[in-house]
Amino acid sequence: MSDKSLFAPYELGPLTLSNRIVMAPLTRNRAGPGLVPSQHAAEYYAQRAGAGLIITEATQVSEQAQGYQDTPGLYTPEQIAGWRTVTDAVHAKGGRIFVQLWHVGRVSHVDLLGGKAPVAPSAIRAETKTFVNNGFADVSEPRALEAGEIPAIVETFRRAAANAIAAGFDGVEVHGANGYLLDQFLRETANVRTDAYGGSIENRARLLLEVTEAVSRQIGADRTGVRLSPVSPASGIVMSGNEQPQFDYVVAQLDRLGIAYVHIVEGATGGPRDVAAFDFGSLRRRFRNTYIANNGYDLDLARSRLAEGKADLFAFGRPFIANPDLIERLMTGATLAQPNPATIYGGGAAGYTDYPAMTAGFGH
Ligand code: 8OZ
After folding, report:
1. CB count, 10 Å around CB of 278?
2. Ligand 1 centroid – CA 31 distance (Å)
3. pLDDT at 362 over 70
4. In the chain, what are the domain boundaries?
5. Which of 78, 66, 64, 75 has the alpha carbon at shortest distance from 33?
6. Cβ(92)–Cβ(61) below 8 Å
């Protein structure tokens, strides 16, 4: 067994991470024209390259996959070129970076989709809002995907994964969490299909597994991860009470695919950890490769969970916004800066690349 310190290197598939702290995906709504990553994104991510692994903000696999204003894509040559500047900047600082690929499904608005309805497993609207036209609005009524459209959804993920490698990413995280398309398929409360993609635990898991298999065939299972949020009510997800068997099955099948990691939101995304009775250890036991734990971690909790063997890596989200040098701050016990809520979503460099790293003697 290697040194089980949070601050010692860790082997993730073919990659050596410099430590066990991961930068969780963080939506920042700063993409430029053509949904190319922000002109400041390379600097922003490079400032945070001290993380053992960076997972980018959620990034659309297609036009139809967008659900919020100014979130980036990875399906045009310009977007690939924009992301290349990010991966080059992170690699120059010795960092590792995966891109999180998403399709929002029903969590969208006609004004983001050229007037078309968002797509979903079933025509069930989520009780949630999105950010569009510079304000919050209820999501639009979705339409149910036809069975014949599903292969094209899988194909957009496969193609975006190929684009990720062309853009220089070290790997891909499939966004299966937080109430977006793949999570919608997993839920009895969002998926009432009667075809091969609904009606049973196995059928509800089919799309996520097909997408993950397509991505891992394209770029290698050892460069593929999946994020799940079994008990999170994010984006209007309603619990059925059958989350344990559903997610036990999903994770066992992901293990069969041999992917590098599962990344588990343990609780309500960005909220309490104890929202529901759920045995996350059951997921851990079903998965042989890396388990990344997320949600509400601080240094003490990460240390104790690592010592107990409950997880291998720990993803921190919001602390990375105002602390580009979060690793050094955690190592030295320095005070953490707090982000300005007004500049989390949207805007330019302010609240994005202008949070300073510690200087000697500062922040203690
Ligand atoms: C915050 C705002 C918009 C989207 C997620 C991609 O929760 C998101 C997201 C977060 O996974």
Report:
1. 17
2. 14
3. no
4. 10-343
5. 78
6. no
Those residues whose C-beta lies under 8 Å from the C-beta of residue 116, and which sit 6 or more positions away, are: 64, 110
Q: Whose CA is closest to atom 5 on ligand 1?
A: 178
Mean confidence (pLDDT) of the chain? 97
């293990």: which residue's tokens?
A: 255
For residue 122 and ligand 1, the question of a CB distance below 6 A is answered with no
Q: Is the dihedral of CA 213, 291, 268, 198 positive or negative?
A: positive
Per-residue pLDDT band at 359 (split at 50, 70, 90): confident
Distance 135 CA to ligand 1 centre (A): 15
Ligand 1 closest atom vs CA 235:
7
**Residue-wise pLDDT tens digits, 154-212:** 999 999 999 999 999 999 999 999 999 999 999 999 999 999 999 999 999 999 999 99
Radius of gyration of the chain (CA): 19
Check pocket membership of 269 for ligand 1, CB cut-off 6 A: yes
Task: Please work out whether the CB of residue 131 comes within 6 Å of at least one atom of ligand 1.
Answer: no
Q: Which residue among 26, 57, 68 has the greatest number of ligand 1 atoms within 8 angstroms of its CB, and so is best to mutate?
A: 68
pLDDT for the residue numbered 360: 56
CA 128 to centroid of ligand 1, rounded, Å: 12
CATH architecture of 10-343: Alpha-Beta Barrel (3.20)
Ligand 1: does its nearest atom lie under 6 Å from the Cβ of 26? no
Tell me how far apart the alpha carbons of residues 127 and 138 are, in angstroms, rounded to a whole number. Answer: 8
291 is catalytic: no
Q: Are 282 and 250 in contact (CB under 8 A)?
A: no
Q: Which residue has 């490769």 as its token pair?
A: 289
Specify the residue with its C-alpha closest to ligand 1, atom 4. 27
Token pair in block for residue 308:
């107990």
- Residue 361 pLDDT: 52
- What number does the ligand 1 atom closest to the CA of 68 have? 3
